[in-house]
Amino acid sequence: MTTFSFDATKTDNSAMRVGIVCSRFNEFIVQALLDGAHRGLTKCGVDTKNVDVAWVPGAYEIPLAARTMATSGRYEILITLGAVIRGDTAHFEYVAGPCADGVARVQQDTGLPIGFAVLTTENIAQATERSGPGAGNKGEEAAIGAIETWHVLQAIRAPK
User: Fold this and answer.
1) CATH architecture of 15-157
2) Where are the domains of the chain?
């Protein structure tokens, strides 16, 4: 039996090319997620000059930008960052689900690992908790998770 498992902080990721897609809507939360993603990439040894960030208007536009980055051939991993906070209208259902489904489809169609940190919360307090500077920042978790997934896929694809 073969087991594929990697600690992204203990692998050489210095040359890894990373694309990040950020939603400008709820930018104060997304900026905190982006700060977390940068912390995660730094923990994993990714060179900051190999990281590109694309800002789109809202979470609904994230899948299209992610697909464009994924098919460009420029990146080993992607990270998607956004915050959809439930409000008084049905926008939550019309934005959050399609965003998640779209990003999942991009990942499945292209085989490129995508760290998903598009928060779907009931209120600003929950979003702030998940994007804070300490442990539990979902942007940081998404960055590290995407790198770990990339290493697992490389090991699976390697000839025996």
Assistant:
1) 3-Layer(aba) Sandwich (3.40)
2) 15-157
pTM (2 d.p.): 0.96
Task: Please indicate whether residue 38 is annotated as part of the active site.
Answer: no
**pLDDT of 20-37, one tens digit each?**
999 999 999 999 999 999
Phi-psi sector, 24: left (phi>0), alpha (psi -120 to 50), beta: alpha
What are phi and psi for residue 19, nearest 5 degrees? -110, 135
Closest by Cα among 25, 39, 133, 141 to 83 = 25
Q: Which two tokens stand for residue 159?
A: 């000839």
For tokens 């991993």, the residue is 77
| pLDDT tens by residue, 71-114 | 999 999 999 999 999 977 777 788 999 999 999 999 999 999 99
By three-state DSSP, how is residue 38 classified?
helix
Residue type, 133: P
The Cβ-side half-sphere exposure at 62, using a 13 Å CA radius, reads 36
- Catalytic annotation, pick one of 91, 98, 110, 126: 91
Residue 118, by phi and psi: left (phi above 0), alpha (psi -120 to 50) or beta?
beta
Q: Judge contact between 110 and 67, C-beta under 8 A.
A: yes
